[in-house]
Amino acid sequence: MLCVVAALPAGWFAGVLIDRVPDRLPLAPLPAVRLTGKYLWIHVLMIGLFALAAVRFEDASPGVLVGYLLLFAVLLTVSVIDIELYRLPDLIVLPTLAISLVLIVVVSIMDGAAEQIRYALVGAAMYFGFLLLAHLVYPRGMGFGDVKLAAVMGLYVGWLGSSTMTAIGLVLWAMLLGFIGGAIVGMVMLAVRRRSQPIPFGPFLALGTIIAVLASSSLVSPA
Length: 223
Fold this sequence. Notes:
Order of helices and strands: HHHHHHHHH
Helix content: over 70%
Number of strands: 0
Strand content: under 5%
């Protein structure tokens, strides 16, 4: 219930970021709560994601749950921006990366699971490195914004690992799910419109990561 309640201000603030960050507009004065059009959908999706996170991490420490609530909120926010503008703003992605690094280190140490820090860093390095290679090979198909977001997603996916190999396995699953989703939508659009058209890839990577996080215990065997 607390997570559902927390989703309401999170959805409101996501709408503020979506409207103002891409144009570098000041956040203040903050608007009132809006429950029409895309803002309603943002609230609905945020509530759904927070509820799923609460179920997935009901046995985890509060710090772990807070981390994944942050991840889901950010992924929803940047996905909407990417769909609208084909951009993943550094003003959201880079602060999230810095905050997440600190959060993961502090929470892991407080939970007596310092080894999880290594798995998180392995996940971040692997996801970032793989998409960086894709960006260098084909920049038009993989933007550098996706590469930077991959570091954030890899941190959290790897954090769920029970060993270096399971962290790598979870990142591979997240990438695979994201690429499959993007490929399916791309082929459908090509079949419907009879011509190739760029699609924002960030939302598919985000969806793959969310699925990998929620289903992590089923996707890889504990080491």
